[in-house]
Amino acid sequence: QVQLQESGPGLVKPSQTLSLTCTVSGDSISSGSYYWSWIRQPAGKGLEWIGRIYTSGSTDYTPSLKSRVTISIDTSKNQFSLKLSSVTAADTAVYYCASGYSGYAKYWGQGTLVTVSS
Amino acid sequence: QSALTQPPSASGSPGQSVTISCTGTSSDVGGYNLVSWYQQHPGKAPKLMIYEVTQRPSGVPDRFSGSKSGNTASLTVSGLQAEDEADYYCSSYDGSNNFVFGSGTKVTVL
């Protein structure tokens, strides 16, 4: 069973870059056919898909965030990461990493709250 | 890229059934059999309940079922139990290597 754990700063200043890492256990990040995704949820609101990376390194990003998002993978550490630049208060949310096959997220991390504030 | 439309709330008594709709367009829900449903309890991560419109992951009770007609997908919970009270979100592939979630439905067990 794949397990995921998000880590990173819980507080980021406006205009700076949000950086989160998802550590994968229970399977190799480079094996299988999984997509590795980031999803966020502002307090009291719904889920928003941010993007995903395949084991080959190919990425897909949601259009509204595409200019500010980078998702990368580090197979040596069994981790994948999210970078979101030029953050504002609107980027305050619980950020989840997740994995699954093409159309769905089967495994989820517990989520980590990131607050954008000076 | 707009969120899929779900009713804000739904409710039913224990043992009854409740059905949640998820309406999109021919570019997302109607165009692909890549609709999934997630259950989220307060303060917890979402849990996959249905994938590829009708498929149920192992461990998910068969009280949960999915279907699709045209641009609308549905999740039915039969034999409602207290632990089914949660928020439910649908999701669909949108044909542009992106995914879109629904607005979410809060299910209350009366």
Describe this structure in words.
The complex is a heterodimer of chains A (118) and B (110). Chain A has 118 residues and is an all-beta fold. Chain A is built from no helices and eleven strands. Helices cover 0% and strands 50% of the residues of chain A. In chain A, strands 2, 4, 5, 6, 9, 10 and 11 form a seven-stranded mixed beta sheet that branches. Chain A has a four-stranded antiparallel beta sheet with strand order 1-3-8-7, with no helix packed on it. Chain B has 110 residues and is mainly β. In chain B, strands 1, 3, 4, 7, 8 and 9 form a six-stranded mixed beta sheet that branches. In chain B, strands 2-6-5 form a three-stranded antiparallel beta sheet, with no helix packed on it. In chain B, β7 and β8 form a beta hairpin. Chain B is globular, with a radius of gyration of 13 Å. The interface between A and B is medium-sized, with 21 and 26 residues.
Strand tally of chain B is: 9
Number of strands of chain A: 11
Question: How would you name the oligomeric state of the polypeptide chains in this document?
Answer: heterodimer
The dominant shape of chain B is globular
What overall form of chain A do the CA principal axes indicate? globular
Order of helices and strands of chain A, N to C? EEEEEEEEEEE
What is the element string of chain B, with H for helices and E for strands? EEEEEEEEE
Helix content of chain A: under 10%
Q: State the share of residues found in helices of chain B, binned by percent.
A: under 10%
Which ranges of chain B are low-confidence, i.e. pLDDT below 50, for 5 or more consecutive residues?
A: none
Unreliable runs of chain A? none
Q: Which chains share the greatest interface?
A: A-B, 21 and 26 residues
- Main beta sheet of chain B: 6 strands, mixed
Mean pLDDT of chain B: 96
Structural class call of chain B reads mainly beta
What separation lies between the terminal Cα atoms of chain A? 39 Å
How far apart, in Å, are the first and last alpha carbons of chain B?
Answer: 35 Å
